[in-house]
Amino acid sequence: MIVVPEPEPRSVRPSLPEIKWHFIGHLQKSNINKLIAVTILYMLETADSVKLADKVNSTWQKKGPSQRLKIMVQINTSGEDRKHGLPPEETVEHIIKKCPSLEFVGLMTGPNPDFQVVIPYLHLFHLDTSCSLFSGQIEVVSTNVRIGTLAETKDPNGASQAHSFV
């Protein structure tokens, strides 16, 4: 996960003022304040729990921006325990009804051969989608295409972790 250690990525802001930053990755509640401090934050693509949505909502409210923060619910299409995400129904309804500072805009899912799981929700909620596997993006007509890697780091166990951006 990338959380910018300073309030703004200085190298981006002056040269590209039109940048709309999408946060992609597992967000821990302890890092929400750091994320919300980024002034070019446009969307959180990985809300994976009601508790996280509530904390983001209250923190965004305290910041006081006039626009709601766009948010996608991360769903687990694979059913794998090690993957983040949840069934979208309860979380989507909760965000719409209980999080006035958040604007629910779509669903996010990681790579999985079964992208068909997402399609019924697209029609039900009239949603944007964000998938991390290009062939899956084409199959479900993803509206956000994640095409690059901003950084690659090693976790404490030495495993490589790529951090994507839109």
Automatic annotation (TrEMBL):
Keyword presence, Repeat: no
Protein known as: Pyridoxal phosphate binding protein
UniProt-listed Pfam families: Ala_racemase_N
Organism taxonomic ancestry: Eukaryota, Metazoa, Chordata, Craniata, Vertebrata
Domain Alanine racemase N-terminal: 10-109
GO molecular function terms listed in the Swiss-Prot or TrEMBL record: pyridoxal phosphate binding
Protein family according to the UniProt entry: Belongs to the pyridoxal phosphate-binding protein YggS/PROSC family.
Encoding gene per record: PLPBP
Record keywords: Pyridoxal phosphate
Organism listed in the record: Sphenodon punctatus (Tuatara)
Keyword Nucleus: no
InterPro entries, sorted: Ala_racemase_N, PLP-binding_barrel, PyrdxlP_homeostasis
Superkingdom classification of source: Eukaryota
